[in-house]
């Protein structure tokens, strides 16, 4: 690990002032990913600004949503009674990620900014366009079982590893940012970038800009939302495929639906095309199959991860069928 | 820099790069906490910070100044083993013993989480206030601690017995 300066700050204003003053600064949350990457010398910040003393409160908004301080731990968020009852998929997604020890350390802001676990990104002896733009990508013809099939480019096929962010994408969460120029908000689906030619640029964050909070808009249908993750072992593994889903029925017509995917996208993947193919359509097997086809039409599988096409198909249909069944049985609950 | 470790205030000046794990082992000779993978995958370095379990290998010591840290050396009170430690002996919850300090601290932290009503990924009804104990809950909640000897059956028996004693009910694994 390279040497660095360390500063603890009390609030976002101090954090940004410190970042503006510092050379090559990074904000430090729980450190569960950043410290590991620094040890591998993938990350080499000269300054760490510890933002774990920033707000970790979870508060009601005027619109009956919730706003979550970026320093809230993953465990605190997953365990919050309001999240568990109003946005259960978010609880389930967080609890499906990492281990209890890591969830006790990791912050909400840090979870959104964690880097891919692509083994070639981690291994500084290999070529990686994300680590070193223009260097090439050894994953393309390497071991890419865990890599993406959606949103990929010829430069990068790394998956975004977060479970939490997949649930947040389905909820249309808003990311509250603060930087030297002031405050702004971005929809989570606009926050992460697809790799294109610049896989090193993963988010829309500007220099010194800081995530201060995540806002969940009110969403009554989320009461019957779920997150299901398929992976190589029963616990403590990254997703091969995961699905966050919720539906609202009007009779036998799909009135509304939210769907997002993990483990298959270069960013937390909102399945817009599938949603469009479901909304307003009869709740039949044919509709579900057409929705999956619509979403996977743009998929670019490689030999080592082509199995994910079938896995996504089965998991999406199984999950949507379950949500429809729950909606039929649950009435307006 | 200053930390409270197993009830004692300890001071040291260390490089910012020092992990909490290396601080415990190298500065304070508390070598009960083990270094396994040093990347958060195995759980051998699990300690309690203000009662919550974390991976000491991924924690920068500087970030934990002023906090109350409990290691395996601090679980016993005045020479009496912690009930989880006793249960590990009774149920043969180890073979080589390298993962044991992490398993013990993790189990103590896990019991606290369960008693506070924190659900897990396998909890059926996340909105329910009352949790139901099961074998699946145990395995899910302890998945951050690996045992390369494969002493999981003994570990699971020990933790189940200890938690049952604490909750005052007979739990089955």
Structure description:
- The complex is a heterodimer of chains A (333) and B (173).
- Chain A is of the alpha+beta class.
- Among the domains of chain A are: 5-52, 2-Layer Sandwich (Uridine Diphospho-n-acetylenolpyruvylglucosamine Reductase, domain 2), CATH 3.30.43.10; 223-330, CO dehydrogenase flavoprotein, C-terminal domain (Enolase-like, domain 1, 2-Layer Sandwich).
- Chain A is built from 13 helices and 12 strands.
- Chain A has helices at residues 12-21, 34-39, 74-79, 81-86, 88-95, 100-105, 108-113, 119-122, 164-170, 188-191, 272-278, 285-296, 307-330, and strands at residues 5-8, 25-28, 47-50, 58-60, 66-69, 174-179, 182-187, 210-216, 226-230, 241-250, 253-262, 269-270.
- Chain A has a 5-stranded antiparallel beta sheet. A 4-stranded antiparallel beta sheet of chain A has the order 9-10-11-12, with helices on both faces.
- In chain A, helix 5 runs antiparallel to helix 9, helix 11 runs antiparallel to helix 12 and helix 12 (285-296) packs across helix 13.
- Chain A is globular, with a radius of gyration of 20 Å.
- Chain B is of the alpha+beta class and 173 residues long.
- Chain B has 2 domains: 2-74, Beta-grasp domain (Ubiquitin-like (UB roll)), CATH 3.10.20.30; 83-167, DNA polymerase, domain 1 (Orthogonal Bundle), CATH 1.10.150.
- Chain B contains 5 helices and 5 strands.
- In chain B, strands 2-1-5-3-4 form a 5-stranded mixed beta sheet, with helices on one face.
- The model of chain B has no long low-confidence stretch (mean pLDDT 96).
- At the A-B interface, strand 1, helix 2, helix 3, helix 4 and helix 5 of A face strand 4, helix 3 and helix 4 of B.
Name some characteristics of this structure.
heterodimer, A: 333 residues, alpha+beta, Uridine Diphospho-n-acetylenolpyruvylglucosamine Reductase, domain 2, Enolase-like, domain 1, five-stranded antiparallel sheet, four-stranded antiparallel sheet, 13 helices, globular, B: 173 residues, Ubiquitin-like (UB roll), DNA polymerase, domain 1, 2 domains, five-stranded mixed sheet, 5 helices, 5 strands
């Amino acid at each position: 690990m390279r040497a660095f300066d360390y500063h603890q700050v009390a609030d976002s204003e101090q954090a940004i002032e410190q970042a503006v003053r510092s050379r090559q600064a990074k904000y430090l949350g729980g450190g569960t990913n950043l410290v590991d990457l620094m040890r591998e010398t993938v990350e080499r910040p000269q300054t760490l600004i510890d933002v774990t003393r920033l707000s970790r409160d979870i508060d009601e908004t005027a619109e009956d949503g919730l706003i979550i301080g970026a320093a809230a731990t993953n465990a605190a968020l997953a365990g919050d009674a309001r999240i568990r009852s109003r946005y259960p998929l978010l609880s389930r997604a967080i609890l499906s990620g990492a281990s209890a020890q890591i969830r006790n350390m990791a912050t909400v802001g840090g979870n959104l900014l964690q880097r891919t676990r692509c083994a070639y990104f981690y291994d500084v002896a290999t070529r990686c366009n994300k680590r070193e733009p223009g260097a090439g990508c050894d994953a393309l013809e390497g071991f890419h079982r865990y890599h993406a099939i959606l949103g990929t480019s010829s430069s990068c096929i790394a998956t975004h590893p977060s479970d939490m962010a997949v649930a947040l994408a389905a909820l249309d969460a808003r990311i509250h940012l603060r930087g030297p120029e002031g405050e702004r908000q971005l929809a989570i689906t606009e926050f992460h970038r697809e790799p294109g030619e610049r896989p090193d640029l993963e988010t829309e964050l500007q220099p010194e800009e800081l995530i201060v909070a995540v806002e969940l808009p009110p969403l009554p249908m989320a009461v019957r939302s779920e997150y299901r993750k398929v992976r190589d072992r029963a616990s403590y593994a990254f997703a091969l495929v995961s699905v966050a889903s919720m539906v609202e029925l009007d009779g036998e017509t799909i009135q509304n639906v939210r769907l997002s995917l993990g483990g298959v996208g270069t960013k937390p993947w909102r399945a817009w095309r599938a949603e469009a193919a479901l909304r307003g359509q009869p709740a039949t097997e044919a509709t579900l199959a057409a929705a999956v086809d619509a979403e996977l039409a743009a998929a670019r599988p490689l030999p080592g991860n082509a199995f994910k096409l079938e896995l996504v198909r089965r998991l999406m249909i199984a999950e949507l069928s379950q949500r429809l069944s729950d909606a039929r049985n649950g009435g307006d609950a | 820099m200053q930390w409270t470790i197993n009830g004692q205030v300890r001071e040291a000046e260390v490089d910012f790069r020092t992990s909490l794990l290396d601080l415990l082992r190298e500065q304070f000779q508390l070598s009960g906490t083990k270094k396994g993978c040093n990347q958060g995958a195995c759980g051998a370095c699990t300690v309690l910070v203000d009662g919550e379990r974390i991976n000491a290998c991924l924690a920068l010591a500087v970030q934990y100044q002023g906090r109350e840290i409990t290691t395996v050396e601090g679980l016993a009170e005045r020479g009496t083993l912690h009930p989880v430690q006793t249960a590990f002996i009774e149920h043969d919850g180890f073979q080589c013993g390298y993962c044991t300090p992490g398993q013990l601290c993790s189990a103590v932290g896990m019991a606290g989480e369960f008693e506070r009503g924190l659900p897990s990924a396998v909890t059926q009804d996340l909105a329910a206030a009352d949790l139901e104990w099961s074998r699946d809950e145990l395995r899910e909640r302890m998945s951050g601690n690996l045992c390369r000897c494969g002493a999981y059956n003994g570990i699971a028996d020990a933790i189940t017995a200890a938690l049952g004693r604490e909750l005052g009910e007979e739990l089955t694994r």
